Amino acid sequence: MQIATRSVSAALAALALVAATNAFAHGDVTPQAINISGLDPLKDSATWEETNPYSGNERAAEIGHHAFAQNCARCHGIDAISGGIAPDLRETLPLGTEGDEIFRERMINGAIRNGVTYMPKFDGIVAQEGLWAIRSWLETVSVDAPPKDAAKPEEKK
Ligand code: HEC
């Protein structure tokens, strides 16, 4: 009986440790669920898309703007205008597949070096749909994005 009690408290202590470690690994951020209603769900949300499936989708950008405010703005700045803590994603994240690749890599791995979490990973914590929605919004605020009042962006180039 004595032993059983002890192993239970050992298990509880181990659990508490896991919880504490997780809190630290998230870089002191509480990830917020993203409401993705209005977006077509991905066929397989466990496998990462190579490129943004919602690129140019206005509803996705709207969702992404809100989700960015909840999950990313505390480091990357409100409306992605960085105050210097983290890169200014309007400038550092290229449009198109190159930017998608950088984005994807960060969502999966975060930025963790020598055991220090500079940025938490979001894969498995926030739905992939919501993360690509953030990417869709980031595309609209990119320094390379066509101006909002451009008549027909597809006529360019
Ligand atoms: C705890 C702070 C923090 C949070 C929260 C955070 N980031 Fe970051 N992010 C950083 C830092 C710091 C870097 C630079 C990492 C490095 O030094 O390698 C970074 C890098 C990036 C990069 C790579 C930029 C580049 O120029 O290479 C992307 C993309 C990115 N973050 C997107 C996001 C998105 C999207 C979110 C929200 C879902 C987010 N981050 C949340 C701190 C954060």
From TrEMBL:
It comes from the Bacteria. Residues 59-142 form the Cytochrome c domain. Keywords: Electron transport, Heme, Iron, Metal-binding, Signal, Transport. Residues 1-25 form the signal peptide. PANTHER family: CYTOCHROME C-553-LIKE, MENAQUINOL-CYTOCHROME C REDUCTASE CYTOCHROME B_C SUBUNIT. NCBIfam families: c550_PedF. This is Cytochrome c-550 PedF. It comes from Thiothrix litoralis.
